[in-house]
Amino acid sequence: MGSLSSTLLWLLICATIIDAQLTPNFYARTCPTLQSIVRDTMAQAVAKEPRMGASMLRLFFHDCFVNGCDASVLLEDTPSFKGEKNAYANQNSLRGFKLMDIIKKNVEAKCKSTVSCSDILALAARDGVVLLGGPKWTVSLGRKDSRTASFEAANVNLPPPTANLATLISLFAAKNLTARDMTALSGAHTIGMARCSTYRSHIYNEANNINAAFATTKMATCPSIGGDDNLAPLDTSTPNHFDNGYFRNLMAKQGLLHSDQELFNGGSQDAWVRLYARSNYALSKDFVVAMLKMGSISPLTGFSGEIRRHCRFVN
Q1: What does the DSSP assignment read for 77-102?
Q2: The pTM is what?
Q3: Residue 33 per-residue DSSP state
Q4: Is domain 23-159 in CATH 1.10.10.10, yes or no?
Q5: Nearest 5°: CA angle at 257, between 122 and 150?
Q6: Is the CB of residue 128 less than 8 Å from the CB of residue 60?
Q7: 17: Cβ–Cβ under 8 A, 6 or more apart, which residues?
Q8: How far, in Å, CA of 242 to CA of 112, rounded?
Q9: What is the CA radius of gyration of the chain?
Q10: 103, 189, 226, 276 — which has fewest CB within 10 A?
C-alpha cells in the first residue's frame, strides 16, 4: 500500500508540474477548434472595425502588467474588490470587453467550461496583430483565470502616457522585460488611437519635444479645453497597418504621447528606434520575442485560478 501511495503521489506531482507549464498544444484534445474559433471571430470584428485589433492587443498588455496574464482586467467590480477597468491608465480607454464576451460565447458553444478567458485574450491579441499585417507567433496556452482584480496594482504598474524614459524602463524591468523589449512592444502603437486627454499636454506644453507643425495639426481636433474624448491615430502614417511607421514618426518628433517621444529624445533607446525605423524585420523579430515574454508574466496554472464561465465574473 505504501508503494502504491508513493506512486500515486509521484504521478500527482508530475501531473501538477506538467499542468503548470504553458504549451501551444494545451487544448489539442479538449478544444481542437479553439484557435480557428478565435481567429474567425477576430477576423469578423477587425473587418468591421480595424481598430479592434489594437484594442485587443492593448487589453492583453494591460492585463499582463497587473498581477500577470490572468484576465483580471476583464472583471467587473464586486462588493469584495474594485476592478481594474477604472484605474487611471484604463479609465475610458480600454475597449474590447464586448468582443471578448462574443469570443468566449463562441468558444463555450464548442468547448464548454474548458478554455480560460486569459488564454482567449492571448490568442485574440496575437490574431489582431496578424490581421493588421503584423507578425505571427505561436501562443503558449494553459493559463487559468484569476478570482480577483486589483485597482490599486493597476494604478501602480501600468505606464501612464506622461511617463519619462526612466519610469518606463523601471516599470518594464519590474516585469522582467528589458528596455529593448519595452521599445519593441511600444511598436504596438503603430496601430490604434489615443484620446485627446492623454496627449493634450504633450502638444501644447512641450515645444522642445515635438514637431511644431505636427503639434499644430493635432490642436485642430484636441482643443486646450474640452474634447477629451476626441481621437487621433498613434501612427499618423499607417494607423490600421502594423509596420514600423510609428518609429519613423518618433524620429521626426511626431510621437503623439509624451511617453512615445521619450523613446527618441537623446536617450538610451534612440539606437533601437533607429533600427526599427529602417527595418520592419528587426521590429517584427523583437516584437515577437517581447510578446512571448510578456505573455508568460505570472500566469495562473495547474490548480490555481479557474476557468471562468463568463469573462466578466468569477464562477
Answers
A1: PBTTB--STTSTTTTTT---HHHHHH
A2: 0.91
A3: T
A4: no
A5: 45
A6: no
A7: none
A8: 34
A9: 20
A10: 226
Q: Which tens digit of pLDDT belongs to each residue from 227-251?
A: 999 999 999 999 999 999 999 999 9
Domain spans of the chain, in order of start: 23-159, 165-293
Output phi, psi for 144, to 5 deg.
-110, 165
One-letter amino acid of 121:
L
Q: Report d(CA 293, CA 313) in Å as an integer.
A: 27
**Alpha-carbon gap, residue 292 to 282, rounded angstroms:** 16
C-alpha grid cell, residue 228: 477629451
pLDDT of residue 4: 45
Q: Which of 285, 27, 282 is nearest to 139 (CA)?
A: 27
Alpha carbons within 13 angstroms on the beta-carbon side of residue 106 total: 19
* Reported confidence tier of residue 11, pLDDT bands at 50, 70, 90: very low
Beta-carbon contacts of residue 196 (< 8 Å; ≥ 6 apart): 221, 222, 223, 227, 228, 229, 230, 231, 232
Distances (CA, A) of 160 to 90, 199, 293: 10, 11, 21
- Domain 23-159 and domain 165-293, same fold? Reply is no
Non-local (6+) Cβ contacts of 106 within 8 A are 37, 41
Identify the CA nearest to 37 among candidates 138, 157, 124, 129.
Answer: 124
Q: Give me the architecture of the 165-293 domain, per CATH.
A: Orthogonal Bundle (1.10)
Q: pLDDT by residue (tens digit) across 76-106?
A: 999 888 999 988 888 878 999 999 999 999 9
CB 140 within 8 A of CB 93: no
Q: Known binding site for heme b: residues? A: 189
The residues carrying an active-site annotation are 62
Angle at 85 between CA 81 and CA 86, to 5 degrees: 85
**CA atoms of 53 and 67, how far apart (whole Å):** 23
Share of the chain above pLDDT 70, in %: 94
Residues at the binding site are 63, 66, 68, 70, 72, 84, 159, 189-190, 235, 238, 243
> 313 has which bridge partners?
310
